[in-house]
TrEMBL record:
Protein name stated in the entry: Thioredoxin, mitochondrial
Gene Ontology terms, MF aspect: protein-disulfide reductase activity
Start and end residues of each Thioredoxin domain: 24-140
GO biological process entries: cell redox homeostasis
PANTHER family assigned: THIOREDOXIN, MITOCHONDRIAL (PTHR43601)
Coiled coil (residue ranges): none
Keywords for this protein: Disulfide bond, Electron transport, Redox-active center, Transport
Family affiliation: Belongs to the thioredoxin family.
NCBIfam families: thioredoxin
Organism: Leiothrix lutea
One term under GO cellular component: mitochondrion
Amino acid sequence: MAQRLALHRLLSLPARGSLASQGRAFGTSAGRRSTFNVQDGSDFQDRVVNSPKPVVVDFHAQWCGPCKILGPRLEKLVSKLEGKVLMAKVDIDDHTDLAIEYEVSAVPTVLAMKNGDVVDKFVGVKDEDQLEAFLKKLIGA
């Protein structure tokens, strides 16, 4: 309990120093609010399927090398859109039911969802230009 309290206090401190100067503030920047980890099926339903904003869903796994390349690249581009699109991260090992429901057969798999429907999808790593085009198509820009 004491460790949790100490961690909570640490995470609630205002960002300072080199991290803040690089635009990586803890928990309060638009980029952090627009990217989240899915906790369970109910959370997915509430924050993805019922979202009024378009959502990019990144199905990934801790052991997946390409996922470690794609995830940060996609997060960076989503944060640049300043809340026009959200990004949900789904670990397939923790949420096998969601991976099966959305027919994820390889990781990384990225879905573009609007109004609860899958409107676009890709599998594998993409470069920044391809990701930008994917996101622009999703938000209609």
